[in-house]
Amino acid sequence: MISTRKYLGPDIKTILAEKGLDSNGRLWRDRLENTSGREVERALACATGSYSLEKLLAFISPAAEDYLEEMAQLARQLTVQRFGRTIRLYAPLYLSNFCVNSCRYCGFNRENKFKRTRLTIEQALTEADIIAAEGFRDILLVSSEDRKIVSIEYLTELAKKLRSKFSSISIEVYQMGVAEYAKLFEAGIKGVTVYQETYDREAYAYYHPAGPKSDYDNRLDTPDRVAAAGMREIGLGVLLGLVPLEVDGLLLTGQADWRVETLALAEHAHYLVKRYWRSRVSFSFPRLRPAYPAPEAVAGQSKHLLSDKNLVQMMMALRLCFADAGLVLSTRERAELRDRLIKLGTTKMSAGSKTCPGGYSEQTDAPPKAGMIRPCVAGRQFEIDDSRSPAQVAAMIRAQGAEPVWKDWDSAFDED
Ligand code: SF4
After folding, report:
1. Domain of 182: which CATH number?
2. Cβ distance 285 to 347 under 8 Å?
3. Is 286 within the bounds of a domain?
4. What's the pLDDT at 244?
């Protein structure tokens, strides 16, 4: 259903520009540096799960690093109140690695030379059967961006065939128009993940030099179109660990600062929640991982990656400001860290993920069926770090006193 509700107030572009959150983070970095312990304590005293920019600023400030235990306790309480002791499990299904964009940090960059693959509908269904046999009822269809290769018709047909096996189908593909999202919604797709990657315009232009994704404003407006089409869940995120932009020896922006990116991300989420009552917002925390060949991702890995401590701080800060938001953790993160984050606000995790088209079929002992694709070596988007099986991850969740949930029960209440 296309939402006809009139938008009130300024759009997200105007909000970010007026607050200086789409460029020149220096003002905000100074404010963050100058935030005192007293201000963090004040924010903790009113941490009810509702958002204000001032409160979030305190929680992500360097001063808040001395209050992580207090933040953890509150984040835990809020998460249990809103979500119970449950962790939803999902699996990504990679459909294609053809891409028309050239994001500098990604192995699927159109400039990279390797044999690319797109699954046929039958191949995708075979992959989905393997995922379903592991127990998953929540699936994320992922594709690099090429709408001619993975068309709306392809996604519609696939979603209709997956509906009987999965209670929740989401996509992370290319940017679409409202009518296209509405068509996918009718076919059974209820969630869309679309990371802005970075809210800093200058950094965005540098990291996305060509292709449709190079249009910052179009990217920024995409979650509006997702919500206007009635999608139930909008996944937001920034890519953590981008290398500072240096041209001719001059450092042009400070966009690698995760703290300023978190402020912009939260403003975006707050804006969406206010305007689109039918849609829930979730946050993901993609830290750069090695990719083939994407040298800037590797450099980011070693020099500018967000520390574990700051990742925990970012997650807890968002929980303390968005009590109802999903916090999603992928297998990019290593097992020990994921285990610890179970109790700190995480609501949804992937497990046993394969990040190339055909990856699930390739892991089975049986020889590939006739017509199935050959093993993917270079065609991964990034390396995963937690390689445990879904059953092992579920056992770990239980051992932590939480319940792994394979099915999206909320979807039962979402039907019109
Ligand atoms: S990040 Fe996405 S759009 Fe960019 S190159 Fe990789 S697959 Fe393509």
Report:
1. 3.20.20.70
2. no
3. yes
4. 58
